[in-house]
């Protein structure tokens, strides 16, 4: 089968690899219809993780069940499914508690949490490929309405729509709250869409990319351009000096200042400033325990100069981490089916899998207009 292989920093290519197959009775094999490139893939693409060369990338996957193992009794061949980026066993302590992003059994390295095609998250192949092996398939796969309707909406259920929702949840959001989101990438835009659906009074989204800032309005939010001035001041001015009830960090450790220099602490500290006393911050942007590719020593050790004194003095709370996709994806599927949620508004490109290499390059440079790339392996004109 064809698959997108990581060859090393800034080097990915579509190659022929052995077909994904059933390896244990609880597996299914899914024929991928849509698989997206994510901001998380870029951390790996840029060589800023310990991703092994030769592995297949892709954790935002959906498709049609092609085969099921002898131990699979809920899923049927032909089912249209969305696959959470998390690989989870369904029966360990954290899975039973609903925190499937921190499964205690799925990661062969023994750390909590596993994912398809991801650095340090187990040995699972990714789904930027024609076929994908899905472990514990009955537990992990979410069945979608059959056919090809709303493909570009449902494809956001594997990661970024639940992750945006999770960021809002981690901030301890309540209806009527005001929210400021740092980062207008796909995740930040999904957080804005989620906050609107959940009844936010006011939503701000900070970025400096003009094309992404334009999409902020489509999410029903106010765009704040941090290259035009301090974003904290801009939001304070817009709120009569009050700030916001909730903040969401949707950038990650490769955040940069207005001149383009990386600074992992900048956005976190700006959120501490802009969120009202006793408010909450949800951090879904990825931070790593080590970052050898970082410029300064602190960042290399996975540490940030966090403004903890102000954070504490204001009585703020913070929630962090990978999204537990299964905690949200069924209800978010229903919101899409009902027409309440339309996460496809961020899609800028639908391409064939064979065009993935060039797409990585352009998405990584944040080229104008490259907001979210959906790849269709094989002939998938029906999805368009
Ligand atoms: N927690 C999870 O489960 C989860 C899931 C998916 C993605 N992620 C992570 O979320 C983050 C965002 O993902 P994405 O796909 O939207 O990525 P992205 O890289 O496309 O978007 C990040 C955006 O942040 C902007 N940005 C950079 N520095 C900024 C600053 N100082 N202030 C404001 N904006 C700034 C960039 O211009 C860019 O538009 C990544 O770190 C990704 O790995 C986490
Ligand atoms: Zn993703
Ligand atoms: Zn588990």
From TrEMBL:
<dbReference type="GO" id="GO:0016491">
    <property type="term" value="F:oxidoreductase activity"/>
</dbReference>
<dbReference type="InterPro" id="IPR036291">
    <property type="entry name" value="NAD(P)-bd_dom_sf"/>
</dbReference>
<dbReference type="Pfam" id="PF00107">
    <property type="entry name" value="ADH_zinc_N"/>
</dbReference>
<dbReference type="Pfam" id="PF08240">
    <property type="entry name" value="ADH_N"/>
</dbReference>
<dbReference type="InterPro" id="IPR013154">
    <property type="entry name" value="ADH-like_N"/>
</dbReference>
<keyword id="KW-0560">Oxidoreductase</keyword>
<dbReference type="GO" id="GO:0008270">
    <property type="term" value="F:zinc ion binding"/>
</dbReference>
<comment type="similarity">
    <text>Belongs to the zinc-containing alcohol dehydrogenase family.</text>
</comment>
<protein>
    <submittedName>
        <fullName>Glutathione-independent formaldehyde dehydrogenase</fullName>
    </submittedName>
</protein>
<keyword id="KW-0520">NAD</keyword>
<dbReference type="InterPro" id="IPR020843">
    <property type="entry name" value="ER"/>
</dbReference>
<keyword id="KW-0862">Zinc</keyword>
<dbReference type="InterPro" id="IPR002328">
    <property type="entry name" value="ADH_Zn_CS"/>
</dbReference>
<dbReference type="InterPro" id="IPR013149">
    <property type="entry name" value="ADH-like_C"/>
</dbReference>
<keyword id="KW-0479">Metal-binding</keyword>
<feature type="domain" description="Enoyl reductase (ER)">
    <location>
        <begin position="8"/>
        <end position="375"/>
    </location>
</feature>
<dbReference type="InterPro" id="IPR011032">
    <property type="entry name" value="GroES-like_sf"/>
</dbReference>
